[in-house]
Design brief:
Layout lengths: L1 E6 L5 H5 L2 H8 L4 E6 L12 E2 L9 E2 L1 H12 L9 H7 L18 E10 L2 H7 L4 E6 L4 E2 L1 H6 L3 E4 L9 H12 L32 E2 L2 E2 L2 H4 L3 H19 L1 H4 L6 H16 L1
Parallel strand pairs: 1-2, 1-6, 4-7, 5-6, 5-8
Antiparallel strand pairs: 3-4, 9-10
Helix pairs in contact: 9-11
The protein binds adenine.
Adenine (ADE) binds next to strand 5.
Length: 273
């Protein structure tokens, strides 16, 4: 999968991308992250990428010309103007208001990282992992010229309800969450299946050697070798954790009759204690 990142701070990316699992995924050709400096697409002496906002007020705004030129050049799109807005529609695969469930795989999502976007979660990571190529545009300064959002960007994503100094960390978070869903990126092929959130539940607790540490024992059942019992215990621990820490998730999770019975038991226990 190919990630095209557009940023004013390209130096932020290599330290993270050249470590651990993402490094291995790149070396094995499973992902390819290209980081493009928007400043390389300016034509004035000072390589200006921002300007003061029309109408006054504080802060600076990212100018449209270098952002359009950078993305159009890298994607090989012809310049979008008011005369060919039809082509704007053609490259739009998704908007914040309507996200198609079946995405045309030949069209490339152009995602702006912004606190105003739809909030990133595992479902969106899965949806984006189906694309062979995505564009991540990192905002900086106080904001971006609205024409970038209106006529270039096809999707807007936030990583949570707080404001960062720019979209670079959010872009890395998307790359990480998406890359680990791709076939063969994780050493264990079932690695992503039991993740917290993958099943709509939080993941069960993990233990490793030693069996006893400072008097605290790992649960006997995990050392029993009885795989059916271990499966059942893990499922129940997932349900218990989700019930205690994120009860909101239970409303959307896919639950079996057995799960519901177990949860009823927890609720009764809680009432009695
Ligand atoms: N840029 C600044 N804050 C952000 C956030 N919360 N999510 C995505 N991009 C951002």
């Amino acid at each position: 999968m190919q990630f095209e990142v557009f940023t004013l701070l390209p130096e932020i990316f290599p330290p993270y991308l050249e470590s651990s699992i993402l490094k291995r995924a790149s070396e094995r050709g499973l992902i390819n992250v290209r980081v493009h400096n928007i400043r390389d697409y300016t034509h004035d002496k000072h390589h200006t990428t921002d300007d003061t906002p029309y109408g006054g007020g504080g802060g600076m705004v990212m100018k449209p010309e270098p952002v359009f030129e950078a993305i159009e050049t890298v994607l090989g799109l012809s310049s979008l103007t008011t005369e060919n807005t039809e082509s704007t529609e053609k490259i739009k695969t998704a908007s914040v208001d309507s996200v198609p469930s079946v995405v045309n795989s030949s069209s490339i999502p152009i995602i702006l990282l912004t606190p105003q976007g739809r909030v990133f979660d595992q479902r969106i990571a899965q949806e984006l992992s189906q694309h062979p190529r995505i564009v991540l545009l990192c905002g900086r300064y106080e904001g971006i010229d609205e024409r970038i959002r209106e006529h270039l960007v096809t999707d807007e994503i936030s990583i949570g309800d707080y404001v960062l100094t720019g979209g670079e960390l959010p872009a890395l978070i998307l790359i990480d969450a998406i890359a680990r869903l791709l076939p063969e990126v994780l050493g264990d092929p079932t690695g992503a299946q039991d993740d917290s959130h993958a099943m709509g539940l939080l993941e069960y607790p993990h233990y490793t050697r030693p069996p006893e540490f400072r008097g605290w024992k790992a649960p006997d059942i995990l050392l029993s070798g009885d795989h059916a019992k271990i499966e059942k215990w893990r499922r129940e621990q997932s349900l218990l954790r989700t019930f205690n820490k994120r009860p909101d998730m239970l409303e959307k999770a896919e639950l079996t009759k057995k799960d519901l019975k177990f949860l009823e038991g927890i609720k009764v226990e809680k009432l009695e204690s």
